[in-house]
Amino acid sequence: MRRWHPFRVTGFLTLRQRRGMWAAFLVMAAYAPFTAWLSDDDTWFLSIVVACLVATVLIADDSARAARRVKRD
């Protein structure tokens, strides 16, 4: 019988995809201020929008993980 481990509860993202999404979120969140500083137009806002979309996916995955964790308990 396998013991339950909290990291085995998965949402719709695998652990590798989740790490990639966190990396993308951090890169885009750090890239936006540099883009705003370097450009005169509002293209830096695209970085913020993409970071928000990635964060939304991570939050949805967290809620799916929490729902599955509650079902197990």
Strand and helix order: HH
Could you estimate the helical fraction of the residues in percent? over 70%
Number of domains: 1
Beta-sheet strand percentage?
under 5%
Count up the helices.
2
Mind summarizing the main beta sheet? none
**Cα-atom radius of gyration:** 17 Å
The counted number of beta strands is 0
Mean of pLDDT: 84
Main structural class: mainly alpha
Rough shape?
A: elongated
Separation, N- and C-terminal Cα atoms: 16 Å
The low-confidence parts are none
In short:
By secondary structure, this protein is mostly helical. It contains two helices and no strands. It has one domain.
Can you describe this structure?
This protein is mostly helical. The protein has one domain. It contains two helices and no strands. Helix 1 packs antiparallel against helix 2. The longest helix has 29 residues. The chain is elongated. The two termini are 16 Å apart. The mean pLDDT is 84.
